[in-house]
Write a structure and sequence with these properties.
single chain, 532 residues, alpha+beta, 7-stranded mixed β-sheet, 6-stranded mixed β-sheet, 30% helix, 38% strand
């Protein structure tokens, strides 16, 4: 009996060892270097527009909270210079740090399959956005934007063993943009379902397409994950592409990758005292892509918008339901219109307990704080009406955002799903399986579709879902599989193995107790039988 029990325990140990052997997440070790930016502030600007002058700048640098950011402030010829630099050891590290400085997620193209393709859409001077924002929040600056106040003295990126210098957006492409496009049309509209839709049409001579354009644009098409429609007739090649997303930023990203030219497209909402205004600004420089006689047109269709359209940039023409711009160098589009409020992001985060643990789900609605002041009671009322029993609502400010955090926990997947559908006005599925033993593979499969979010509000710019697994979990596919964009994928699939030493110790304890109990019982009665 003792022999068979020890064999059983050895088998259990071998099975657990087999299941713990799993894939290890790796990062791009080649993407490491540093970024430097030096800007100059004229003496007159420092005195007229920054309260406290150089002292205010030094104070904000000391208290910025970026322990990875190096800085230096000095004076030369009466002008003040501010220099920043930071190191990074991976692409994700660079994006994370850059995003903190910009105040928004940067648009960056980075591929290495067929030579280095690296380009940033944001102008380098915006790495000082954080400083200008701090000045504005403390009311130490007036009237200017970061781009107007700071003039670049030096901007460089050390990457792949080389120093790259650019006073605009960083572009490390190993090939020049081909100036081959003869006609270009970009049309943008916001559909009734909240999606931003854009069509890009351009044309060139058939010979130019075959010799230069095809290779350039088909490579970009693959990078952008888009599909080009190509039609050649009478010696002319026409190319068209359709794209859509719930955020202007994603549309700008796809345009940027496809055309290979910087595209800064921003949407901001503000309360003007009488109502909510959506402000659109786009700056796209496609001059390097155009032939000398190219005819370019950018059109924004506004047929589903009510109220007066205000054109803020020059050269824009309003024609009934559209705004059009022609042959601008570069194109600078800026207009505003009355609109419904929009959340910046809605996120779903779930903490999964152990084998028998509770699941905690948190749904967060993020909206700009200046908008929340006007819609606070309305948002709060809608969420409270949708809450099921056991739900908790937390409201707090974080930086420039106000978060409406709705929390719920349960042992039952069905109740977690019911809570989610009720809060989001959505239809979904959720299945969490613990297969076999406690150290065996477990799966999480969840989909969210047809979400209405909140009545009277636009669909959020970003809609994400993420999971947090118990400590000791080993994840197939790495940590990236724990988070996904629901707009893009609609579902999340996670496979993991979980080792809980408490359960493991308990299982061994039961085995040992059982073993000694059997030994005592059988030993006692066995000896008694032998005596008789």
């Amino acid at each position: 009996m003792k022999k068979w029990i020890w064999i059983y325990m050895l088998a259990v140990s071998l099975i657990s060892y087999k299941n713990v052997s799993y894939a290890v997440e790796t990062e791009d070790a080649e993407f490491e270097g540093n970024r430097k930016l030096c800007v100059v502030i004229s003496q007159s600007d420092l005195e007229n527009y920054i309260s406290g002058g150089r002292y205010s700048l030094e104070m904000l640098f000391r208290t910025c909270g970026f322990d990875w950011l190096n800085y230096r402030i000095y004076t030369s010829d009466r002008d003040t210079y501010a220099e920043i630099s930071y190191e990074f050891d991976s692409f994700n590290d660079y994006v994370d740090k850059t995003e903190q400085l910009l105040g928004y997620e940067p648009l960056i193209v980075y591929f290495t399959e067929n030579g280095i393709v690296y380009e940033e859409s944001f102008p380098s001077v915006e790495l000082m956005n954080w400083l200008f924002q701090e000045l504005a929040e403390k009311e130490l600056v007036s009237e200017y934007s970061a781009e107007d106040l700071f003039v670049i003295e030096d901007s460089r990126l050390y990457l792949f063993g080389e120093d790259h210098v650019s006073f605009e957006n960083m572009d490390l492409r190993q090939e020049e943009l081909p100036s081959i496009v003869e006609q270009l049309s970009i049309r943008t509209r916001k559909a009734a379902d909240g999606k931003v839709e854009r069509s890009i049409n351009f044309s060139m001579a058939e010979e130019v397409w075959e010799t230069r354009g095809k290779q350039y644009f088909e490579k970009n098409e693959e990078y952008a994950g888009l599909l080009l429609a190509v039609n050649t007739q009478n010696g002319q090649t026409d190319i068209s592409c359709e794209m859509s997303a719930y955020s202007y930023r994603e549309i700008a990203n796809q345009t940027f990758v496809l055309l290979g030219v910087p595209d800064v497209l921003k949407q901001e909402q503000e309360w003007d005292g009488s109502g909510l205004q959506t402000h659109i600004r786009e700056i796209i420089d496609f001059q390097k892509l155009m032939s000398e006689d190219c005819v370019a047109e950018i059109v924004y269709e506004l047929s589903d918008r009510e109220g007066e359209i205000t054109v803020l940039s020059e050269a824009g023409e309003v024609e009934e339901d559209r705004i059009s711009y022609q042959n601008m160098e570069p194109a600078w589009i800026e207009y505003s219109y009355p609109d419904l409020p929009q959340f910046q992001e809605v996120s779903i985060h779930t903490r999964v307990g152990g084998l028998l643990g509770r699941k905690e789900r948190v749904i967060v609605f993020k909206i700009k704080k200046n908008l929340a002041e006007n819609f606070h009671e309305d948002i709060k009322s809608i969420l409270e009406e949708r809450m099921i029993r056991g739900t908790v609502l937390n409201i707090y400010d974080e930086g420039e955002e106000r978060n409406y955090e709705v929390c719920f926990s349960s042992y039952m997947d069905s109740q977690i799903l019911e809570f989610t559908e009720q809060i989001l006005g959505a239809v979904g599925t959720l299945q969490i399986e613990n297969n076999g033993y406690f150290f065996d593979e477990s799966t999480i499969q969840e989909s969210i579709r047809a979400a209405d979010f909140l009545n009277g509000y636009q669909k959020p710019e970003n809609f994400r879902i993420s999971y947090e697994l118990p400590a000791g979990s080993i994840i197939q596919g790495g940590k990236e599989s724990l988070e996904t964009d629901l707009y893009e994928n609609g579902r999340i699939d996670i496979r993991y193995r979980y080792f809980d030493w408490k359960i493991w110790a308990g299982a061994y304890g039961i085995i040992f107790v059982t073993f000694f109990y059997i030994k005592i019982v059988f030993g006692k009665y066995g000896k008694g039988n032998r005596k008789r």
